[in-house]
Amino acid sequence: MKFSTVFKQWILPLFFITVGAVIAAFALEEFLVPFTILDGGVVGVSMIVSQLSGLPLGILTIVLNIPFMIVGYKRLGLRFLIKAIYAMVVFSVFLGVFEDMKEVTEQEILVVVFGGVLLGVGVGLILRYGGCLDGTEIVAMLLSQRTEFSVGQIVLFFNIVIYGIAGILFSWDRALYSLLTYFITSKVIDFVENGMEQGKSVMIITDHGKEIADAIYSQLGRTCTQMEGTGLVSNGKKTVLYCVITRVEVSSVKKIINDADVSAFVTISDVSEIVGKHIKRKKKLPEQKQS
After folding, report:
1. What's the pTM value of the predicted model, to 2 decimals?
2. Edge-first strand listing for the sheet containing 265-270
3. How does pLDDT run across 118-132, given as a tens digit for each residue?
4. Residue 252 to residue 279: CA distance in whole angstroms
């Protein structure tokens, strides 16, 4: 195996998984744990058990995740298992390192906000590079295939149950703080995992299809799929362009459209998943652009 392949598949991902695990451990021990503010999923259950029993949080996280890792291995393969175990080991080690350090702040609102943001950054990096700290999402994927609920809905249900138990055991303000932290963390995870490269789909209905498509290709390197449409009221022929861009390219596309056709009708939507190549291509502009 070439070094470039090893670097891309293992060295670089493990580096960022390490960084993510350290950040996540710091967020828990220096912000959330001292104030009994819980994470969701298996880590949240581990925090409850640790608070009640005094057992080390890092050890509990690994032990309680073992069944989920077995399921994950059968579903996602050996590479996932190796990265997940590595992430959990690093996470557990640094939970111990940060355990005896003094918490960063005693202001609970700062604990919730910065703890949630840092935890989201850490977990987001781990997920982005193929690792995992929590087996709840693996179970959620399996249940989602057998029910009408999405993975996100199932994870949210699990976490609401966990926070409800926390409210009974500790206090309802702890449960509410934990729920708020969860929402902050989940948004940050989405941003870090998808990054600025999160896909946006653009549909353009215009009278200047070729001009706009050429400009998008020459300026952004994105190809467009061209379709023909008919206005229901005007009964006129329209060109419909469809392309996928990143969020940082949205403003550039808007400028291209405005410069070419101020009357164009445009919709821009989030893309949750892209299957197939989604790469900028820098080459001579073809006469027809189809993707």
Report:
1. 0.72
2. 225-230, 237-246, 199-206, 265-270
3. 999 998 898 888 888
4. 17
